Amino acid sequence: MRLFNFMPMPFLLDVAGEATGPASGDPITPEETPDIEGMIDKAVSSMVDKFAERLNSKLDKTLVTPSPKDVDLVSKGGFKDIGDFTQNVQKFQSRQSMPVEKAALMETRVGPDGGILVPPEFSNKLFTLAKEKSQIWSRATMLPVNGNAVSLPSISNYSHSGDSYYGGVYNTWLQEGATGTAVQPRFDMLQFRLHDNMTLVPITNDLLRDSPVTIAPLIETMVSNALGLSMDNVMLNGDGVGKPKGMFNSNCKIQIAKETGQTAATVVAQNIIKMFTRFNMSYLRNAIWMMNQTVMAQLMQLNMAVGTAGALIYMPPGGLSASPYGNIFGIPIVYTEFCKTIGTVGDISLADPSQYLAIDKAEEAAWSKEIYFLYNKSVLRVMYRADGQMWQNTSFTPANGDTLSPVITLATRA
Predict the structure, then answer these.
(1) Into how many domains does the chain fold?
(2) Is residue 75 part of a domain?
(3) Segment 323-334 mean pLDDT
(4) pLDDT digits (tens, 9 = 90+) for 7-66
(5) At 330, which CATH number?
(6) Is 21 exposed, middle or buried (0-12, 13-18, 19+ CB in 10 A)?
(7) What is the CB neighbour count within 10 angstroms for residue 300?
(8) What is the pTM of this model?
(9) The 3-state secondary structure of 167-210, one letter per residue
């Protein structure tokens, strides 16, 4: 009797070529009995090997080449843009119908405060646009940071007077047999710790529901502009308390006094020339003039006496009929509202923003209707963390001449 119908039983042939064994009715001796267990093991092992091979093949394809749909769900949450996301948030919060996979994704993103995290591709785009929109912050030297703080050495007593350099590096010429002077450079430590910056964008629920066009460009523009402008402001005027320390509040800043008898709220050629001569020429490559737009009228009238006449500094020979120059002493001018109004310290400055060190982290963007629930509004909250300050602690004392700095401002003209 055969135990497995699919298992072939070998036939034994006698010398005459006639079949013997089960088919012929002759008994089979133990030596002639096939190895049933061995055959089963071989068949099962072959099946297991083929199954494992097919399984590994499928896993490799999934890990190496994810489908576009999977990529879209991870980076975009399955949404076309941030406008599509916000409108679907409204549907989700109103319990209206929406694709199952998007609803499931939102359910997993709901935080303890009721907010829904914006998909990473959209939130990262907001931070990228903010840096592109900024005029000053984008010029800072950004330092990598893994945690929430970093410490960097800074030169203390930056001076080249005598035979010392960089606050303590001693260099001298020795006569035969003379002994050098033992000195030790003095360094300070700059402490950077990330501070929270929050941008809120309230939008009415009616706009989210009824807008005939996507509101993605509107949201991106508002957030990127607000964040970029905020960072420009703090990089210039920050007091360092719970926020970055601005260039105008740095210890290395040099302030140029007004001219004797200078009229209030004016800028004269001598102001510009003296600011330029006190700027550290080592930083000339990345230098910019930063001015409030209220300075422009005075700038167009700047002139230097040439004999009994004068020569305009900012305006071209064609006068008002031609475009004004965009540079002074070859250095470009950047107009920013965060410089003070004319006549006030900070209305005009000459600086190298690359000497400003900064750290930052793009945290998250989340959407919620809880904050403005009674006002029938939803709000986008964008969290950004940053810190910064000038690398140079003091102005630079050269071997000969006046002190120099990478940040020059003009004193009040009142």
Answers:
(1) 1
(2) no
(3) 87
(4) 444 444 444 445 444 444 555 555 555 567 777 777 767 776 776 677 666 555 444 444
(5) 3.30.2400.10
(6) middle
(7) 15
(8) 0.70
(9) CCEECCCCCCCCCCCCCCCCEEEEEEECEEEEEEEEEEHHHHHH
